[in-house]
Amino acid sequence: MPLQIIVGAQWGDEGKGRIVDWFAAKADIVARYNGGDNAGHSVTVGDTLFKLHLVPSGIIHGHAIAFMGSGMVVNPGSLFKEMDMLAGAGVDVSPKRLRISHAAHLITPAHQALDKANEAARGKANIGTTGRGIGPAYTDKAKRSGLRMADLLAPDFLERLGLHTDDANQQLNLLGAPYVNPSDVMDEYRGYIEILRPHIADCSSELTHALKAGKRLLAEGAQGTLLDLDHGTYPFVTSSSTIATGVFVGLGLGVTAAQNAVVSGVCKAFQTRVGSGPFPTEVKDDLAARLRGTGENPWDEFGTTTGRPRRVGWLDGVLLRYAVQINGLTELVMTKLDILSGIETLKLCVAYKHGNKTITDLPFGPTDLDGYEPVYEEYPGWQEDVSAMRDWGELPLAAHRYLEAIARLTDIPVRLVSVGPEREQIVEIS
Ligand code: IMP
Q1: Given the CA of residue 13, which atom of ligand 1 is nearest to it?
Q2: What is the pTM for the complete model shown?
Q3: What contacts 286, CB < 8 A, 6 or more positions away?
Q4: 274 Cβ below 6 A of ligand 1
Q5: Atom number, ligand 1, closest to the C-alpha of residue 308
Q6: Structural domain of 15
Q7: pLDDT given for residue 45 in this prediction
Q8: Which of 104, 109, 172, 242 gives a 20 to 30 Å CA spacing to 72?
Q9: What is the per-residue pLDDT for 42?
């Protein structure tokens, strides 16, 4: 298995970071293929909690080389904070270990200002973005006016950055938003050039050679399937290809690299979503508070990037089956099973009711979920604390039944189950 793809099977925040960390123990290379610092991947190792937004989570393992692919948008300021944090914790983030694609796009202060101004202009119809400048950076990429990593090396880079900021200021002016000072931006970036220069690489070539040489590559997705620009709950999505096929464009790999690939869909034992948009199985009140947690623990359901409380609900099997289809998932990894302990009856959405019809597949994907009512199957819950359990045989029978129902519904096996935030709190199902 030279290539393994880890993808979020829901609306992001599935716990991909710690799952990548688990699989990275056996990988030679870990590579992020989409998104920017809108992502928040947490990994707990002993007493240390690593919160990563840009750098692939697998870098925490000393042996793996990390790549940031061309499908990413990179805010250098955020990147440096993260590199400092990692270096302070003894993680090697030198240029030989952290490679950044020459074709990854830069996020600038003007992109961040535009993201906030666009959201304010949308009013009640806002998307609920993270405000990190993601949409405007990908807009510039599609408009063919973006600035890429390799542009940092050009003699006229600062001049182009100034022009980009002037252009953004015209749009900010129309939106009635404050102006971004081009000289401040140029001063800020002047300091970034020399630090980034040795990290800039031809990822496509390096990764293709590594695969040919038999190296094991773990591709790490950010956000989740339902936030994919083309195949998610549009327009309440992010601006990148979050799904498994995004790997090929976002890392510069040929499709033949997909042969025998393992595609692992990470999925919480329940459903969560941040920001606006449809959520058929959403729950409110006491159950929501119970699933969300209080916010005292870093793994409670509050955004790693923005701190916003996440919306929560029952696991949606219709959307999960869609994730299996659109990603070609070969296995599921279920996280946060421990959170369900103590709930008397668990509900699993197996179909939707639409008018008089009961449907198990959405006619046009998940874009328009209005008018679809979840149809639930109920499963007995369990009272036991599962967080110290490490074997399938130890898990309560009720947990077996719940997980088996999910495997039946999706027609793929559940390979791993996480029962707590620590690195070793995993039940491997052979
Ligand atoms: P953007 O990616 O900041 O443009 O935000 C677009 C939508 O994606 C919003 O609903 C965000 O809350 C959501 N989103 C972006 N990144 C993440 C993530 O890493 N986890 C969960 N939701 C995210």
Answers
A1: 20
A2: 0.96
A3: none
A4: yes
A5: 12
A6: 3-91+203-428
A7: 86
A8: 172
A9: 86
Contacts of residue 377, Cβ cutoff 8 Å, sequence gap at least 6:
347, 348, 350, 405
**Active-site residue numbers?**
13, 41
Quick one: pLDDT at residue 276? 87
Exposure letters 346-358 (e unless 16+ CB within 10 A, then b): bbbbbbbeeeeee
Q: Name the residue with the closest Cα to ligand 1, atom 8.
A: 238
**Separation of alpha carbons 417 and 427, rounded Å:** 5
Domain boundary among 199, 228, 251: 199
**CA 129 to ligand 1: nearest atom:** 5
Do 219 and 8 touch, CB atoms closer than 8 A? no
Query: Which amino acid is present at 278?
Result: P
Same structural domain, 317 and 350: yes
Q: Could you read off the pLDDT of 253-277 as tens digits, one per residue? A: 999 999 999 999 999 999 999 988 8
Weakly modelled stretches of the chain, pLDDT under 70: 1
The CA-CA-CA angle for residues 62, 68, 71, to 5°, reads: 155
d(CA 123, CA 121): 5
Tell me if 226 CB under 6 Å of ligand 1.
Answer: no
User: What are the tens digits of pLDDT across the range 208-218?
Assistant: 999 999 999 99
* 215 and 276 housed in the same domain: yes
Structure tokens at 98: 């952290």
**275 CB within 6 A, ligand 1:** yes
Whether 173 maps to a domain, the answer reads: yes
Ligand 1 contact, 227 CB (< 6 A):
yes
Identify the pLDDT of residue 1: 63
Q: Name the percent of the chain in helix, strand, coil, to the closest 5.
A: 35, 25, 40
Residue to probe by mutation, ligand 1, list 57, 130, 272, most atoms within 8 Å of CB: 130
38 lines ligand 1 (CB under 6 A): yes
